[in-house]
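Troubleshooting log. The previous structure file for this entry was overwritten by mistake, so regenerating from the original sequence record. Sequence copied from the archived sheet and checked twice against the printout by T.R.
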Amino acid sequence: MKSILIKDTTREERIRIVQQALNVCGSACEFCNGCDNLGGGRVETFYQPYIDGEKEIAELNAAYHRSFVRG
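Regenerated output below.
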C-alpha cells in the first residue's frame, strides 16, 4: 500500500484518496446521512486541509472522533 502522508503525495493524489474513501458506498456524499453526516453538506469539505497539504488525514479523523468523546 502506498503512503497517504502529505509528504508522499501530490494534491491530485490526495483528492483521489479522499474521493475513493468517501465513495465506498457508491453514492455521492452531498447531503448524505450514511456516515453520520446527517444532511450537513459536503463531507469532503472536512478533508480540505488534507487535500491542501495542511493536516494529515489521521489528524483530521482523530479530531473528528475526539469531538464525540467527552471525558
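Residues 6-65 form one domain. Archived copy saved in two places this time.
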